Amino acid sequence: MSAIFxxxxxxxxxxxxxxxxxxxxxxxxWMQDVATAHVDAIGLGLKEYLELNHxxxxxxxxxxxxxxxxxxxxxxxxxxxxxxxxLYLSRQYVFYRPKxxxxxxxxxxxxxxxxxxxxxxxxxSPTFTQTYQPLAKEVNPIDFTVNYL
Length: 149
Hints:
Layout: E1 5-10, H1 24-41, H2 46-52, E2 54-65, E3 74-84, E4 88-97, E5 102-115, H3 126-131
Antiparallel strand pairs: 1-3, 2-5, 3-4, 4-5
C-alpha cells in the first residue's frame, strides 16, 4: 500500500455556503474523512483502536484555503504522514481539482496518542509505530500525475 492516500469527492449542494462555494467547515470534515479512510485502509481503524485501548486524536490544525470549489466539481483529497514519534504524528493534506489542475487547499494536523479509557496521553504501541510510516522524502505528494486511487 502506498504511503499516499487519495479519496475522491464530488461537491454536493449541501457543501455549498451562502457565497456559492464549498464552506470552510466542509474542508475540515473532508480532512477527517480522508484521514479516517486512510487509517482504515492501513488496518488501524476504530475496531483496532478499541481493541488496543488507544487512538490518535487531533490536537492542532493548520489550514490554508487557496481556491474556491463549486457544486458538481470533482476533488481529490490527498493525505500522507510526514512525521512520527512515540506520542505524536503529523498528517498533511492537499485537496486538488483535476479539471484545472488546481490545488484548492493545504493543511497539516498534529495528532496525539491517547488511552481511550482515560483520555490521557499514551505512548504509541508497536502496532501503531510499525503501521504509521512517514512518507519517504524522495516522494513528491503534490505530483498529481501519479494516481493513488
